[in-house]
Model the fold of this input.
Amino acid sequence: MKRIALTLLFLMPFSAHAQTCPPSTGVDVSVFEDAKTAFFRTDYRAFANLVGDYIPDMDARFEALFGPLDMFEPRGYESCQTILQRRENPSFYQEVILFFPRGVDGPIALHLVGAEIGGTVRVLEFTYNSSVGAVLEGLR
Done:
């Protein structure tokens, strides 16, 4: 019985990971998947920790960056869907994800931009907006 429980414990993060914001592809970027999971759970502090390496003054700007999203807590998001995954050689990555808040019309669009630096993919910047068009204009 312990073995089954332990096996389930190890599998849980991976199965939840893959199901957060489908569709998933064979080239999922781990830091993007972790960031999408944190955003979906309205854990913006965890999201900031994952994406903050190259965001100047993330801690000092946390409230300004994430304060507008507080209106979705504790309702959270009902679902999310990845609508774009762009991979460009040698190591540039972009994703646009729609998050559907409970009790609110229209999604929040999140744009993640990353690159492989020193063998690890890092988030270089992110943008979110209730206007999907505004986020799509930021595609590179």
